[in-house]
Every structure is written in structure tokens, then in C-alpha cells.
Amino acid sequence: MRTRTNILHSRLTLALMVVVLLVAALMRVYHLTLQSLWFDEAFAWNIIIQPDMFPRIAADTHPPLYYLLLRGWTALAGDSPLALRYLSTLTSILTVALVYQIGAELIRRRDHLFYTAVPVAGALLLALTDMEVDLAQEARNYALYTCLACLSMALYLRWERRDQNTLLSPLFVSWIVANTALVYTHYQGAFIPGVQGLHVLLFLRGRKRIEGIAGLAVSGLLLTPWMLLVTIPQAERAISEGIPFSIPSNLETLLHLRREFLGQMWPLLLVLLITGMFTVNGSRISQANVSIPILLTISPGKQGKNREAFKVPLPKGEGFRVRAQDQVRDSSVVTRRTQHGSVFLLVAWLVLPFAVLYIGNLYAPLLTERKLAIITPALALLAAFGLANVRQPAAGLLLLALVIYGAAYVDSYRLKEPWDDLAAEAVRYAEPGDLALIEMGNGQYPMKYYWSHQMPDGVTLSTFPVLGDPTMAPTTDWYTYYDGLLPQQIDSALAQNSNGVTTAWVGFWSKETTSLARLEQAGFTRTMVVSYDHLGNALNLYRYDHLPENDATRFESGMRLRAVEIDEAALRVDLWWSTDVPLTGEYVTSVLLLDENGTLAAQLDSVPFQGQRSTLTWQPGEVMFDPKPLQLANGWTQLPPGNYRVVVQVYSFDASGQLVKSNTSDGAEWYEAGTISR
Amino acid sequence: MSISSRGEACLARTGVGADRNAQPFIMIRTKAAGKTVQLAALVMILLLAAATRIRNIDGPSLWIDEGFTYFTFKTDLFTALVGDRHPPLYFYSLHVWESLAGDSIFALRYWSFLPSLLSIAVVYQIAREAIRERRRENAILTVPLVAALMMALADGENYLAQELRMYTWQVLWLALSTWFYLRWMRKPSRVHAALWVAAMTGAMYTHYFSALALMVYGIHALLTLPLRRKVQAVVLLAVVGVLIAPWVLLVFTQQFRPSDACFGCGEIMNLETLRSFRQSWFGQMWPLTMLLALFGILAVVNGRVRLPSRATLLIVLLGLLPLVTTFIVSHQWLEFFNHHLAQLTIPVVVLLALGIGNFQQTGRLVLVTALVLYGVTTVDWYRQKVPWRELIAQFAPYVESNHLVLSEIGAEEAALGYYFDHLLPEDVQISSFEWWGPRDVNAYYNQQLPPLIAGQRERQADSVTTAWFVYWNANTAMRDQLLGNGFVPTMTWTVEHLGVTIPAYRYDLLPEEAMTTFEGGLTLRAAEIAAEIDTDDLRVDLWWSLERSLERSADAVPSTDFVTKAFLLDANGQQVAQLDSQPALGQRPTTSFTAGEVVYDPKSLQLAEGISQLPPGRYTVAVQVYRFEGGSIVISPTADGADYAIIGEIER
Questions:
Q1: For residues B424 and A212, what is the distance between their CA atoms, to the nearest angstrom?
Q2: How far apart are CA B235 and CA B253, in angstroms?
Q3: Rounded to the nearest 10 degrees, what angle do helices B345-357 and B286-297 cross at?
Q4: Does the beta-carbon distance from B285 to A386 stay under 8 Å?
């Protein structure tokens, strides 16, 4: 029967956890789509859109579960960046809740105050952990990996606590499934069953030990087919080719990881982590038979008193199971073993992945920050136990300090390449029939994502798929692509636009320049360059155009109007300019829309290419793309029906500020580019 | 466990409790043991503080402010102080100290180190006074020690202890005055009153910003003391006012002329400044340290929270009032850096200690460990100073007593001056626009500088005349005058400072006629034998130029990277010493020469036994130029077809 105190306690816990989960959700959802998808995320997306994704998974270094889940998820939620990332966000929030469960399991027999405080504090600290927040905003398997690690540990602890021999109980089966799913999500997830296996061998006895070993063995068996068929070739390839983004094992990396995982408050967190491995001044209840982290009890000589403590009635609510007093006396050895075992679980959870990855990294490129993300729950829980040891009011103040810090600073954050912005620059001007080439190494996947979602229908997307991508090109052979497929695609685009300007967009961030050479060989000229800076690197977007042989007109200034195209739908006039000699004046190019009476209906005057390509910077032979989107206060649709003339003129200002028009070679004030009807 | 309760426990264990007469004896022993532990701990803290403060104390070069302090040694002190904005006590005391300890950087900065160390002991006493009021007997041992420890680790104090400035003295005086005020408040006596007045007067004669603390004492006395004591406090503060009146009346109005309210060197208080202050006093772990300081305002006694005591109120006011006052007045006329408010360190560390003292033992241990770990691994208050010493040390070996040394580096000139005075030959002529002097720009550039350069030009009409020029300024007047007098830059030494390259140039006025031209186009414009053979420091200075640039190409055959060689031949034509290198200490390969440029190329001739060990006799000094071709040396003959050019003889 639950006492009133226990009911109040449960409600308080629930309320606190709701707040913690709301904080976790807020931290994870805030600015979820602020940054572009980056290589890893777009790579995941590219796998799930493949008709047969298993060959692509086998070519990668990860197991399949996340991709399967993501594919199912996108079938329901779509594949927008928000939807892709939201799966990680949800699992990360679930991780926070699971950390509470693990904390509750570990501190089960302590007094009410700590029973509530430690698991909630652990959950709160994880909610604020920057590494976890960052991974919760990525369409990758790391958030799920941590989540399943926590699920496995929570189920294991629960199974371990229960006495009944339930080899096929739902709990036991769930634990096996969780472990299997964990390793099927990320191979480094094997650390968790590894830690559990050590715990089983060192701290469990009798039938429980045999059951534990059996459970782990079953998980292993379930993994075996995949391991044999896929993992071993993946590992061999990874070792021979290296894993991208791995960091070296050295002091610099240790300092970097310290910042990533502990932040600027690392001295406090470090001390709390160490304190969390002990129970200081253990209370009477704290030495009961439960999972309490005690390596060292700094209040010796209280054994007799502790035994006496069991004479007082203890709360009997959920989670409090008191053994019969006669069992307690006999079970003191078991108690200590259990307590030590629970500390071992957390410490091993923290140390084993770190040590193996850090040391193993000396032999194979294994270490990345995100692979270590699996230790964040252990960090949060140990810090929470450390807080519990310092007692009130210090614990509250320290927690407040950590919360303020967590809310005010970001210590782990990946600054992603602005692929979305770069892609949008092309999307703004792209038209059906254009060719879109990606020559960006790993950037091909995010560019492919954005262009395939945003480019108008009829734009042909092409890239050389280094890692294989049947949706882009049915080959991974360099010659087949650059000497066969690409020239065919270029010729096809040219054939579609034989009368006008043919455009090819190139996203370029590579040493591979063959696609540019192929375009130039086909008579294309670079007419526009947009660069975005990413950590000192220029991400480029090139526009290449195949222009008609004859100029539309020439102006007295020396400017050649190479071509004009009118996009009626967008009410935009595209101009292409060049010059044979360097220009000495600053010229303004102007597009006017005149009605049948010659009255001005719309106009745009600017230095070419949106003010960015002053005529003073033009080099002889260079061609400048100069789009002029015409704007009307009331919109194009508000113009009276009729025919409208589009004219192009060029002018400059003399020293006195007077406008000086540059006539065409025919002596006209402007060039008649065409007519549009409304 | 408190001292008394420990004593009782001890009595109980030994069974002495039955004898009531024995109890005081035991307690005295316990107290004595506690004091010994306290003392030992305090000594350890002071040793830690000494180590962190003394480490690399003379490493960084002097900077602008320290340069002014050094400037006071080179001019009339009183006149210098009138032109400055600080009171005199520190400067006069430093002059006395310098006469005893010398003027090395270590000795001069040591005068700031000492008070910084003493402040720790005084802060210990302040915290002791503050905790005494709280009746936290179990914290009375901890809090003062933690305060001392925090003071020892305070980055501001550590930084200022290595500065040739008065700030650590100001902190010491204010720490003393706070301690004496607290003692006077608790035990009014004439001695305490006199000590308080003396410390306040010392603080005021050290830095004017100490007035902010005096204001705090006055407000605190008016708020918390009984009427009679209020009157006494006001009288004592008035006495301080009378004691500083002579100096204020004498120079204050001259020091603070409205026309030059600021040198344009400080900061206006704004949110950004407050953030930088937060970083300076609370570090990167500011959420923790600020909460601790706030928590220190309250007293937790037996689990109950009490409002601030009188002593705590004083500590809080010492922190808040100077900050708020400066924040307000800075918008009117004051501009300052964080070191001007160095006095804030005292309340910050005491409040931190009081905050930690509010916790139980484990909490204290965790916090102190974390703060110590942070304190010894991180620096939040530091100024990266221009490495003047490194710059001067690079070219000092080439400066001779008949050279002219100029600098144009703004307010840093006095700091640079220290290294000129200590690293260059004694009688070298040094000149720069004196930033801390009368600052008459026209008088210096139009009247003082031109005859100086012209005089140097005429000094050695028949040989090479040299001027050195350290330059970090937008003003080009000095350089223009050098160029206008025919001097040309022949070599550059540089140091990096925060991404900026600061150069020092050698300018030479060369004879019009070149000595010879070697095959390949390398012209020996001039050569000098720079030192005596007896000193083991025989250097041959060469000046090279090219009529046209040599091609720099890996494929060029033959390679045009020439090696220049200076060597010594004895009377038998036997080579006895030599140095072969690319010009300018290997820094200027001949392919980097531009047409018309002159490159200075010093060659220090070396001999395993030392040049001075050569047998007496006449020696010929010669210069040769060669290049490598196909792994073989190809000598470039002189215009006369000789393998080398003789530039002089020396006698040993």
C-alpha cells in the first residue's frame, strides 16, 4: 500500500521529469534546421532513397538498423531536414528519460530525497549536455545509439534486480533485443554488452550469472549473420582506407575531448565525477542491498549501526524492496558486491569505450568525438551521484551553476557547410533543361539533397559517385563517367536548348576539375561565380552557359550584349555581357518594361550581377551573367493586359553626376530584347 | 567538529572529563594544535602564491604603464608625477627599493610581488573577522584559509604581482584598512583607529581609486555603527582627508586637467566591459563562482539561512560600490582598465570563501578542489606584452657606440627605453619622441630630430654611418628624415605581437663609391671590420647590392644564390678563420635582393680556439663570393679578376 508520502514523492518526481524533458526538448528542437544538412546526414538520406539500400550500407561502415528506421520514418514524416533530424531529436529526448530510469535503478534503496534528486539531476545534466544536443540535431545514428545503450542498461539493471528466474520473461527478452538493436545501430554499441558481460562475470553469482551470459550469447548469435556477411568486409575496408573525421590519439585530442564533454567547467565536473564514484558519509539506508555506488565509504565503523537501521520501517512504495531482516545479516557480502558492481557499471561505461577507442586508435582510425557520445549518460549519472555526495545546499548550488553554464554556453557544436545557401543560389535562376553538376567530394550528398528537392523539374542532376550511387550514375568508373556519361549529358542539354542559352550549374569544391574541362570543351563559358566561406574554405557555385555565336548587340561603351533571355513566369530578364578590352567606366545596366504606348511599366537598373560585378572589374573575354528580376509594386499580375516591350540600355554618370547613355552599335538608345504578353 | 567540541571529545576519550580542572588544559592543547595546522596550511598557501607569482616574473617585457614607471627613474620624479595621474607613494618607495635592489626587471617587479604576498595573509585575517560574526565555529578554520587560497590563485593578483605598477600595493593597503576597520569595529581602540587611518592614508597615497573604499567605510559606519562610533568613524575619515590634502592641493588640479581627461587608452563601462570584468574576477567557471560569491553573502548556521552580518555587508559594499560608481562615472570622464579596480579582488575572494564556508565538509572539499584545479590550470587575467626585449636583443650585438638609435612607437617608447638602456652600448645616442614628457610634437620633429640625424650623417663622413630605427606607428616623419638624409634600410629584425609584425631597421649611410663588383652582379658597397681581434669577437660587416634582381629559379643554371664569405689570412696567406653564409645571417639569399636595395651582411669570424688565440702578427681580412654549380664551388672573381677582395688588415 502506498503511503501519502510516496504518492507525493512520485508526483514530485513526475513533475520534475516533465520539466527536465521539456528543457531537453527545447534544447534539441531550438534551431533544429538552422544549419544545412552535412555530409553524414545527406549520406544517410542518400542511402535510404536507394531502391536497394543494402549494398550501399554494406559499402559504408555502419550497421543497418538506423537506416531501416529512418526509411520507415521518412515514409511517415517525409524527408525534409526537419523530418530527417526529428527522429534523432525524439530518441535523444527518450534517452533523457532512460537516464532517469538508470539513475533510479542505481540509487534504489536510498532515502527519498536522493531517490528523487539523483536520477532527475542525471537526466537534467544529460538534457544540457552539448554533445548530446548536437547529435540530437543530426540525421545520424548517434542519438539512437546512445538511446539504445541507455535502454539496454536500464533493462539490464532491472533484470539484475529481480530475483525470479525468468529466463524467457519479457524483461530478459527485451534486454536481449535492446542489446541486439544497439549493435545493429552502431558497432561501438558493443561496449555496452561488453560492460554488462564483465559485470555479469564479476558481480553476479549462480543462476543469475548463467542467465546473464546466456542473454549476451543470444544477442551475439542474433548479430552473427550480419557480422559474418557484412561487418568483417566493412572493417577490413575501414582499416585499409581509414575512417573519415577520425582524430589522433594525443594530448591535444585529450584536451579537445575534455572541452567537448566537460566544457569550461571541467574542473568541477571532473571532481564531481570522481566524487560520484564514492559514497561519502553513507547513511543507514545507503548500505542496504542496492545498487549504490560505493567504492569507499568515508564513515567506517558503522556496520552494527547500519544493521540496526533495518529495524526501522522503510518506505514500501514502488522501487523499495526490503529484504527480510534475517536475510540482511547473511547478505552483507552480497550487498557490498552489488554496490561495487553498480559503481563498476558506470565507471566501465565511461572508461571502456574511451580507453578502447583511444588506444585502438593508435592501430586503426577509430576515434571520433561522436563515437564517444555513448559515454555521456555515464558522465551525467556520475556527476549526479557526485552532487548527491556534497549534500544540500551545495548540491543545489552546484547544480544551478551547471544549469546556468549549460544554458549559456555551447562546447560541442559542428559548424556545417552552408550547402543549403549555396544550392539556393542556383535554384534562384535555374530553369528546366539546365544541367546541374556536383564536383564537391563529400559535399555531393548534401548538394544532391538540396538540388533534387529544390531544382525545377527537368533539370538533370549529375555527379561522379565516388562511393557508388545508382540513382546518380550507374558506374563508379572514372572514365565511364567523365569520358562517357558526362559528355552525353552535356550534349543532351545542348540539344534541348539548341536555339538559346544552355546552362550548366556546377557546385565545386574539389581538386577534380574534369567536369569543368568537359563543359569548356563543349563550348560552355563560366558566367557567374558565387562563393561561400566555410572555415576559410571557399565553396563555389559556378554557372556555365553555352551562348549563341552572334552578339545581340554592342554598346558604345565597348560592352557586348552576348545574349538575352526573358523568363516571363518569373518576370526576369537574363543578360550576358562581355568586353574585348578593359572598360574604363563604371556602367549601369538597365532593363525596362514598356507598354504599347512606350510608358515605363517596370524597370531594374544596377551594376551587373546584382551590383557585384562592376564593369571596372571585367576582364577581356570574360562573360558576365546579369539577371534582372523586374519588380512591380502591385505585382506583375496587376498590369493591364497587353504586349510589353523589354528593352536593355547601358549608361554611366559623368564627373558632374549627369547620366550619360551608351547607345547601341546601331545608334539606338536601347536594345529591343523582346516582347511579353499579359 | 569545532575546537571546543573536539576538546570535549578528547576529554571523553581519555576519561579526563571526570576531572573538570583538566579540561582547560586539554582545550588549550587542542587549540594550539589547530593553530599549528592553520599556520602550516597558511604557509603552504603562501608558498604556492610565491611560486605562482615569481614564476617567469621577468619573462614578459615592460609595457606602456611599466614604461612610465621606468621613465620616472630617468627624470625628476616630482615633475613626472605631476604629468601623470597617480599619487606618489609607490613611486617614491620604488625609488628607494631600486637603490637597494638594483634596476633589473626582476628586482623592480619584486616590489609588486611582495605586497601581493602580504595581501594573502591580510585577506586571511579579513575572512577570519567576517566568519567570526557568523558564529560558524566549524568554518572558522576553513573560511580564512580558503580566502587566502583563493587570493593566492586569483589571476588578477598573480598578474599584477608581475607588473611594475602600484596596484598590488593598493590592494595591500586596502586589505589592511579593511582588516583594521573590522577590528576597530569589533574592539574600538586607539591603536586600531590609528592603524586604520594609516592604512587608508597609504591607500590614498598609492592610488586615487582607493577613495571608493573610503566611501564604503563611511557608508558602512553610518549604516551599522552606533551614533558615537559613527562620529568617530567620520572623524577618522576626515583625518585621512587632512593627511592627503597637501598632495591633492599641490598637484591634483595639474594631474587632472579637463583638456586631456584621458589618453584614449581605456574603456567605457558597458555590457561588454562587465563581461570582461566577469571573466577577470570570476573566470570561465563564472556560473559557479558568482553563485558562490552570492551565497557567501548569506550565512548558513545550523541549517538556517541568516541575513548578512555587519562584516559581510562591508565586504559586499567593497565589491559593489566601486563597481557601480565607476560604471556611472565612466560615462562622464573616467576611462579605465580592469586593473584600476584591482581592489575588487578582496571582496570577491572573501565572499567566495564565505560561500564555500556555508557548505558541509564534502561540499567544501569538492568546491575547493575544483577551484584549485581550475586556478592552477587556467589564466583569465593576462596581458600579452610586446616582446621588446626579444626585439632589441636581436640587433643589440650589432649596435656600436657611435650609432644613433631612434624609435617611433608611441607610448611604448619608455618601455622600449629600458631595453635600450640595458642592452645597448652605454654611450650610444638614443632618441625618440618622449610620450611621457612635455609632448611637444613640433619641437621634437622640427627642431630636435633634424640636427640629430644630420649630426650623425656628418659624424663619419668617410665610412658607413648607422642609425637604428624601431618603428610601430602611423607617423612616418622619422623614417622620412632618415631617408631624406641619404640613409637606406639595410636589414630588418622583427617580432610578432598578437599577429602584428613589429620591425626594427638598420639604416646605413654608405660611401658613394662601391668597393668592388663580383662576377654575377653582386656589388660590395662597403665593408668594415667591426671589432677588435683581441676580444674573440671579430666581426666583418659587409654591405651588398645588385644592379638588377637575380632570377630565382630552381632550374636556373648556374644557380644565382651566392654565398658570401669573409675570412682572415695570416702573413703567409694561410686562411686562419672564416665565415661563409648567405647574406644577412642567412636570411637574405641573393635571389631575394631587389635592384638597388642594400643588404647588410655581418660575418662573425670564428675559430675553435678563439680569435684571441691566434699568434701575434698582421692578418688580412678578405671577402669572397661563390656559388654552387653541380655540387662544386664556382668562385665569382672581382672586377679586377681576383678570387677575393681584400678589405683591410688587422694587427694582433
A1: 80
A2: 25
A3: 80
A4: no
d(CA B354, CA B311): 11
Q: To which H or E segment does residue A504 belong?
A: strand A502-508
Residue from B278, B285, B294, B354 to probe the interface with A (highest A Cβ count within 10 Å)? B285
Sign of CA dihedral B391, B396, B399, B401: positive
Which residue from A minimizes the CA distance to B295? A397
User: How many angstroms separate the CA atoms of B105 and A637, rounded?
Assistant: 80
Per-residue DSSP letter, A542: E
The amino acid at residue B24 is P
Q: What parts of chain A have a pLDDT lower than 50?
A: 111-112, 282-331
Nearest to A648 by CA among A585, A597, A606: A606
* DSSP-derived secondary structure letter, B248: I
The secondary structure of chain B in percent helix, strand, coil, rounded to multiples of 5, reads 55, 15, 30
Helices (H) and strands (E) in chain B, counts: 23, 16
Residue type, B280: S
Please provide the size of chain A in residues: 678
How far is the C-alpha of B118 from the C-alpha of A644, rounded, in Å? Answer: 89
> Which of B366, B371, B373, B379 is the best substitution to test chain A (most A C-beta atoms within 10 A)?
B366
Q: Find out whether B503 and B473 touch, Cβ atoms under 8 Å.
A: no
Q: In this complex, do B288 and A405 lie within 8 Å of one another by their Cβ atoms?
A: yes
What is the end-to-end Cα distance of chain B in Å, rounded?
Answer: 82
Contact A539, A530 (CB under 8 A): no
Residue A165 has a CB neighbour count (10 Å cut-off) of 12
Per the model's pLDDT, the better-predicted residue between A336 and B350 turns out to be B350
**pLDDT reported for residue B93:** 97
Give the pLDDT mean for B624-650: 90
Cell numbers placing B40:
602550516
In Å, how far are A3, A441, A474 from B70, measured between CA atoms? 78, 60, 77
Residues 6+ apart with CB under 8 A from B101: B107, B108, B110, B111
ipTM rounded to 2 decimals: 0.79
pLDDT digits over B554-582, tens only?
444 345 789 999 999 988 888 888 899 99
Between B285, B300, B359, which is nearest A264 by CB? B285
As given in the structure block, the three cell numbers for residue B321 are: 560600490
- Give tens-digit pLDDT for B376-399: 999 999 999 999 999 999 999 999
Q: Where are the beta strands (DSSP E) in B510-644?
A: 516-517, 522-529, 539-546, 563-569, 575-581, 598-604, 618-629, 632-636
Distance from C-alpha of A579 to C-alpha of A586, rounded to nearest angstrom:
13
Q: How far apart are CA A293 and CA A107, in angstroms?
A: 8
**Which of A281, A386, A393 minimises the CB distance to B359?**
A393
Distance CA A106, CA A103 (A): 5
Question: Rounded to the nearest 5°, which phi and psi values hold at B571?
Answer: -60, -25
| Averaged pLDDT for residues B539-567 | 73
Give the separation between CA B595 and CA A125, rounded to whole angstroms.
67
Would you call B362 and A275 a contact, using CB atoms and an 8 Å cutoff?
A: yes
Scanning the structure block, which residue is given the C-alpha cell 649611410? B509
- Closest residue in B to A279 (Cα–Cα): B362
Q: How many CB atoms lie within 10 A of CB B121?
A: 18
Distances (CA, A) of B494 to A101, B478, B502, B504, B506: 62, 18, 5, 6, 12
Q: Is the dihedral of CA B473, B478, B484, B490 positive or negative?
A: negative
Give A-chain residues touching B285 at CB under 8 angstroms: 264-265, 267-268, 401, 405
Judged on CB neighbours under 10 Å (0-12, 13-18, 19+), B244 is buried
DSSP state of A523: T
Phi-psi region of B359 (alpha: psi -120 to 50; beta: other; left: phi over 0): beta
Cβ neighbors of A224 (< 8 A, separation 6 or more) are none
The model's pTM? 0.81
